[in-house]
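Summary for the funding panel

The consortium committed to producing paired sequence-structure records for every protein in the target list. Below we show the first two records in order, beginning with the earlier of the two.
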Amino acid sequence: MKILILKLSAIGDCVLASPVSVLLRHAFPQAHIAWVVQERCCEVVEGNPFLDEVIVWRKGPPLRSLLDVTREVRARRFDVLLDLQGILKSSLLVWFSNVPTRLTGGRSRMIARWAATRTIPEPDRLHPLERYLHRAKTMCEMVRGPGSIINGQWSMVMPVTEEDRRFAESFLRAAGVTADDVLIGFNPGASRESKRWDAAQFAQVIDEVVAQHSAKPLVFGGPSDVQQCEKVLSLTRSPLISAVGKTTLKQFAALAARCRAFVTCDTGPMHIAAAMNVPVVAIYRPTTPKRITPYGEQHIVLPRDGAAREVTAAEVIEAIGQQLSSQRAAADAAPKSLLNAPSREGKDREGNRATFCVISSGSASPYATIPEGRPSFSTFLKIRQ
């Protein structure tokens, strides 16, 4: 069987859709699974170990780029297409794909539902990640029969390479950051001005967190965020580390994974940090009517009451303190919870002797075994001896 996932953009949405690849690989271990994504978002999809292929919708004249990607899709003769985008642009590819079974969701645009061979009914008020999984589970039941999918926690996938991790280690080493430092990430930028929080308040939070927690602030941002980040940098009194405009998305993910908390506006890097299991403090402006929040109970979304108002610096400082306190409490409790965990002996990537304890299922980690090139569905926690 050949399955095509269609999710073109945006960066955060592609990260939220990544659990679909995990679920489909679990349901169809021998299938050829591909993903179509726009060029500007391909970095968060390429390297996903649950996929066999990534088809990139290249930049260019609209008609030419549509014809090029359509030609690629038709040549591969897919059996099933799962449309997670559901807009005009994606529906054109769906219609011309020549795939016999084309599925989309009930919340997709009318033209996307028209281009599909079947529309999947969807409950209201689902988080986007849950909505994507609902479509994938329904597709699996159509192909394999009702009750064929095991319910579980299907984790987000942000493909980070060893080279990206080495970059992060080198970057932090050059900045004088050690493993014991309280490193906190700050992401002041956003795709739209209406989503950006006040630069002076960001600076106030940084100074207060440094004073209260002896933290080392690490400021992130892409090329389009330079101006906003420079405002924040000019207003802070504390020494900080700037990665603004210095990383790829994968390198950013590797750096963010080292942070104890990640403070951000509503933007794609927020979802990448969440995918790397970093506790997020997400700041939403009253000008953001549709809130796609970071997925997971460990994250804090401000304002907590969901009101259409501005978030204060005091609220952000309190939320960061809560995230750090929760981590300290979890660290104190972790050894007790692992005493009876099943384990195995082995060596880590550097050749050091280590114990691997099974702590969860339904996700992959850098330490998961990969039999026959496929990621394991057990996650191992490495404890150095």
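The next record, for a separate protein in the list, is shown here:
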Amino acid sequence: MSSGTRGPAPRRNHEKERDTTGHQWLETQKVREKLFLFGVRRGKQSWAEVDEHLAELERLVATAGGVVVGSMVQELRQPRAATLIGSGKVEELRLALEEEGADAVVFDHELAPAQQRNLTDLLGAKVLERAQVILDIFVRAAKTREAKLQVELAQMEYLLPRLAGLWKHLERQRGGIGVRGGPGEAQIELDRRLIRDKIAGLKKRLQKVGVQRKTRSKRRQQFFRVALVGYTNAGKSTLMNRLTGSDVYVADQLFATLDSTVKALSNVPGKSTLLIDTVGFIRKLPHQLVASFHSTLEAVLEADLLLIVADSASEALDVHLDVVADVLGQIGAGSLPRRVVLNKLDAIKEEEKNGLAMLYSDAFFCSAKTGQGMAELRSYLESERCRWGQEVRRQWEAPPAVPSPR
């Protein structure tokens, strides 16, 4: 597939942002940064899947405030250690960047720090990878103190192995008689120590916030807790608003919400059922974010039931459900009771619904936007709450275990 221009994403204005180290991520100025996408096809991966990945990357770039001016894909049989792609493709990409007037290229593939540095030198342009765009979006979306700490921690851990690239102009002094261990190397090592200290400090601050979170969580143990989890932009927050009558922030964009929100299910006596809206998942989610947001995702581990919310209109529905299952496994929630909720029923035709019903026979179909299917979902949640209550009563009423004689 050769380079080609895609339609511009909706126009948005953002100021340039930097993290606390001064390291620049994605420049999203009022004059929007022009980005070129580069995808890689590996093994038996279909071209349709590659295109779907690039389309999602384009949405990520638009959410971050950039505009895509073109894309290119290479069928990669043997990755190159120095640059991932071969020298001929590097030159082809350099010419495409020049022709499209791109400010940077975003790889939809993880790059080793050395590969990123080498490509930057050879292309004469900024080289980003998908993880950096996601991190940039998280920086913008973080509103609470805990979310900001978690995102900053993820940034620091991502940045640590890439410090040499920030000091290329000094690192050229390394090696050779008279300059071995010179100021470039010293500056990099100093920065490494500063960032390690910063990481340690952020972890301590997050531990304190985590203690406060656990205190709040203990107060909720008397309630039936239902966590809404799913792929980003599946409509979890809209579903939360529909079921609770609340006004959680909703936007048709990726990662509109980062913080867990807890609301009581409306029209239920005693507010005995709590819904927990959590951060959305996405394929190739940077492991630094999964680790940093572990305390936020603890709300999922404490739930009595998981509702896996998915976009029924998505062509990648099965992939999205697999990604959610994988992340749940990473955080230790793989064995929790769950039920799939296929949202956005208003966006599909009746025959499409019938086809999905055959594949996902145990799923609930609904539209959080129109309210379709809400009565059935509410009835199910109430029956599960009653079952949970009976189990809790049995545990309380059970006689204490008698120790066996020695």
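Regarding this second record: The first helix runs from residue 47 to 64. The chain has three domains: 34-140, 142-206, 221-395.
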